[in-house]
Design goal:
Elements (H helix, E strand, L loop, with lengths): L1 E5 L10 E11 L2 E6 L1 H9 L3 H7 L10 E5 L8 E9 L5 H17 L4 E5 L9 H15 L20 E5 L6 H25 L7 H15 L2 E5 L1 H7 L2 H7 L7 E8 L8 E6 L1 E5 L19 H16 L4 E11 L11 E3 L5 E3 L7 H14 L5 E6 L3 H7 L4 E5 L2 H13 L4 E3 L17 E2 L7 H10 L6 E6 L5 E2 L9 E2 L4 H13 L1
Parallel strand pairs: 1-7, 2-5, 2-6, 6-7, 10-12, 10-15, 11-12, 14-18, 15-19, 16-17
Antiparallel strand pairs: 2-3, 4-5, 8-9, 9-12, 13-14, 16-19, 20-21
Helix pairs in contact: 3-4, 4-5, 5-9, 6-9, 8-10, 9-14, 10-13, 12-14
Amino acid sequence: MKITCITQTVKDIACDALVVGVAYKKAGQQKKPVFSSVAQQVDSLLEGLLQEIYADGEFKGEVGELNTIHTFGKLAAKRVIVVGLGSVDKLHTRAIRRAVATAARHAQQTGAQTLALACTLENSEINKEEQVQAETEGALLGLYTFRKYQSSHLNGNGKHVQAVSLLVEDERDPAVQAAMHKGITMAEATNFARDLVNEPPNVLSPAELASRAVTVAKHFGLEYEVLEREQMQELGMGGLLAVSSGSAQPPKLAILRYRGAPAESKEHIALVGKGITFDTGGISLKPAERMHEMKGDMAGAAAVIGAMQVIGALRPAINVTALIPTTENMPDGSSYRPGDILRIMNGKTIEIVNTDAEGRLILADALSYAVIKEKATTIIDVATLTGGIVVALGSAMSGLFCNDDELSQKIIEAGQVEGEKFWRMPLDDDYLEQIRSEVADIKQTGGRYASSVTAAKILEHFVDSARWAHLDIAGTDFVDNKLPYQEKGATGFATRTLAAFVLREAEQ
């Protein structure tokens, strides 16, 4: 899809749909529309029609609300789609991103092939570059579909959007061009992560996931290596080896390295992503209902690979290593069992209670590798780790566990910029009692209560003195139904947050 910036008279923009954003401002009990200069010009060309539909209550300006107006030759655009941006006092990039995604999806579903976007507001607290980036991301994220295994790759009307133009004051402005490029990069990486999660498990095996990580590395000039079973045995990776023992597919540990700063640089970030390409629960077998969704148990790995795609493309001045431990969790005569005791790479032992709590085991080895071999100073792991976090936070936010206040705030702020919400959860040592074992250093699970917290406390045993954050994205990695702004399936959650965090760290 082609995305460009244009500077053109509103009346002369030839496209199938011109998307115009309109916010509102409260005045007592009333809401008054807030038009950008483009919206004002459109309203004038349509003889006050935008003001009229607002006054008649046909359009209130809520985020993602739509109203389509046919222009009948008064503009070169065939129709105008007015989309709500919400309250101007609370305007944020997430609202712009969601509004544009909703409008773009609607335009495509109604046959549009060319779009022009004019959803930025002057005199907003959000600068124009952030608004342009959000517009760009919204269009690409909203137009995403996964249809490669269907007979037709097109949407239901046989057409799809082929070109998007962003209407800006000066198309030659380097800052605006950079914002558009950043938005394209962020959105394409997110959609790449969505593709990985949406792939069927008979296609995306551990070897294939590692191969696609390597393909990203080659394309963006990253260093890479893939550790095999024999190397894991030499390193003492008892967690990854045990989880993989019941699968016919060999485990892999893909490592991608980006070096944007001198080797002696003190700051070294490690991103670790859980890569269970299919999770049956192992011996502690899951119920059959919804087991097919367990192909997405590698969403953390997908987010990390996607983030490395952004990092490789934008080249920040910082050193980053990605670690992707990947395997299947299958029942077999050689599977690991409840009651087993495993030794992780850093030497600590874990008593197995439930083989369906496998993610923390493969992460334990990867976290240990980040500390021992990579000497990482900051570690962020991402995983669809617990059902407990879904009970706690639903699908609106992901859980954030962190041993450093500053790091926690930086991740939350990066997520806010990219429209991904995190809620910090406790890491109190009071929870250690639940994972105390009488036969090993720790127990693999702490039971039903506070399960997401005890899982994080287990991971904490493998990060040594590094600044560390654990993102439990089990409730946000996947949507069950189509939404006005999003396709059913994978969301690519955390891809943009990780990338934004790294970019901001490099700038500082």
